[in-house]
Amino acid sequence: MRAPNGLRIAIVWLLTARLLTGCADYVGAGSDGGVDGLDARDGRDDGGDGRDDGGDGRDGDGWDGRDGRDGGDGDADPWPDVCTGDGCGGDPEPCRAAAPQEVMLQLGEDPWAVPRLSHSGHIRVLYNRPLAGWGSELWLELIDEGACVQLLVDLPAGYEAPVAVGESLWAELEHDMPWWVDEWLTLRERHASGPLRLRVVDAAHFEQDPAVRCPPQPDGIDCGMLVFPQAFFELDPGQGGVWLEQGGEARVQGATGPARIWIGDLYQYTEVWCTDLPAGWLQRADLATGLYSQCRCREDESCAAGEICDEGVSRCAPDRCQGLACPVGEICDPYRGECVPAVAGVFCFSDADCGAEQVCNRFTGQCLDDFCAREDCSPCSSRQGGCFECLHDCDCWPGLCSRETRTCRDGCSLNLMELEQDNPERFDLFAICASSIEPSQAETLFGARILEGEPLDCRVDESGRLCDPTDEIACTGSLRLDAAGQGIEDQQWRALCAISRVPIVSRVAGTHLMH
User: Which of 471, 428, 475 is CA-nearest to residue 448?
Assistant: First the structure.
């Protein structure tokens, strides 16, 4: 039988689907005509990153995930009637399953080490860093339990978990291991019924008698017969939803602004011949971006309210037209916050409508000089008018990007940072005091993650000289000094500043080898 190597949550997920009258014209994208790869349906049979090589079910533009069918945004019926009777011009075309999306949730680096975890309550975000090309690594403090958990969240199209370090949110987290691993994570604002921020489901589901378009087909591992239903998905009950299949994607309106629903795996067994095989599987991700801009964007819906997407650099930018009224005959350029003359009858909709070394400002409809075609700098934005050190915090990791000056800054918490970069005390070591975390977890979070592999020694400070031994641990490590042998090296300084912003940290100080 199949034994997935990732995090799955045991929860009965209510899916409703409707029966259509045949399978002609139904050809899913990204498939070779079979259901091959089902034995790696969770994408983790080889310990990899949650992807398979068969594609992601997208239509070639790397974005919509709807393999060319209309209706993925809920505005039209995505499942047109098909011809199956006499006079249809031959036998119906064989049904094929659309390739699954990249959707995954995993508890820590070894989800098998935790047989069961159930949490419902307030959390604080301790750490959120985009993983190269897919999703985020999150560390959450379970406030009531005084403990933290590590989550790996895989999302399609380069999206990341829309949460900021230090935020307090309501979380529901389930992790269970019947034999495989089931998981469910929901993050909401403020309370259990607050607006949805992020939901990821990666779990067995047991819908009885699912209504499907296509007849059952072998699963490819000789364990039974599968169907791939189309199901109705909502962000919240009563808000309206969309019909989606495996590999589908939809844009919807959430309580705080634009949101997306992705469906990774969605299949159901009608016959199961292997012992302890899940009766079906659902991978789903819902993500709202109204309050949090993604590092990279392809459209305005990837950005927070009050921001727009600068598609030339794939970065969200402030909408600088807010509160600015232009005189008659002029139009506001939101990239630069300037009123420019409206040119009648001359419009561009994309860069293709402009000349060589020009780009299109889609808000004013005017072609602009492509400043960045001649300048060797990054990031550079022709629409925003120049070269900048940063356009988003992700350009400055582990520092922060000032949206006013577009320059990187250290981002130290001045209340907690007791070190100075020029190190006038000539300290040899740094010390981090933290609560609600085990020593081994602190070594992973602070050392392996934020300090990028630097060794840390984390333990209770029995002497109490550095940290409170009753509820804190002390993590110490060597300071890396600059060429002059006194000041703290830039990269380590920025990392220590990032640690000073982690909510469970009470102090970042210096000490000597003999203290």
Answer: 475
